[in-house]
Amino acid sequence: MTKKKVSFEYEEITSIEACDENIQSLYNEAQKAKEKAYAPYSNFKVGAALLLENGEVFTGNNQENAAYPSGLCAERVAIFSAKSKYPDVAIKSLVIVTSAKNVQAPVSPCGSCRQVLLEYEFAQKKPFDIYLQTKGQGLIKVASANHLLPFSFNSDMLNG
Ligand code: THU
């Protein structure tokens, strides 16, 4: 038996002010989107904003439902909205924020969102940056959705 280890790199950013203008603006858009989240069941509001290579910004927030599984996460609302309008334009960056007062860990996309982010990353054949809000003013930057989902299921497996 051989033990193997999977690791990935990420950057810790102490404050949004350390980011370039595009990311600061995405962060502000994500914050605004978060305020409009429909989260009456969890009270956990999430906002997402993404920048496409054509310069357009799309936002999303979580949409909950009395039938819980019918709701959708902020990231997927944003990404499906962008891709339904611009199926062939690549994503450059994505910012995810939450209203939770004292986020200890980064706001981390759920497994289904990781799967969806990775689908589009594979499709565009180019990684995109993901910024996750963390404690205080801080952010974590992950340079590819691939880092968030090792051993992912992907379309290659369907063609085996
Ligand atoms: N949620 C998101 O919108 N994105 C995430 O990355 C994690 C969780 C939402 C789903 C649900 O409305 C609420 O947060 C609590 O799970």
Automatic annotation (TrEMBL):
Superkingdom of the organism of origin: Bacteria
Keyword DNA repair: no
Cofactors, names only: Zn(2+)
GO cellular component: cytosol
The entry's keywords: Hydrolase, Metal-binding, Zinc
NCBIfam families xrefs: cyt_deam_tetra, PRK05578.1
Protein name: Cytidine deaminase
Native organism: Profundicola chukchiensis
Phylogenetic classification of the source organism: Bacteria, Pseudomonadati, Bacteroidota, Flavobacteriia, Flavobacteriales
This protein's encoding gene: cdd
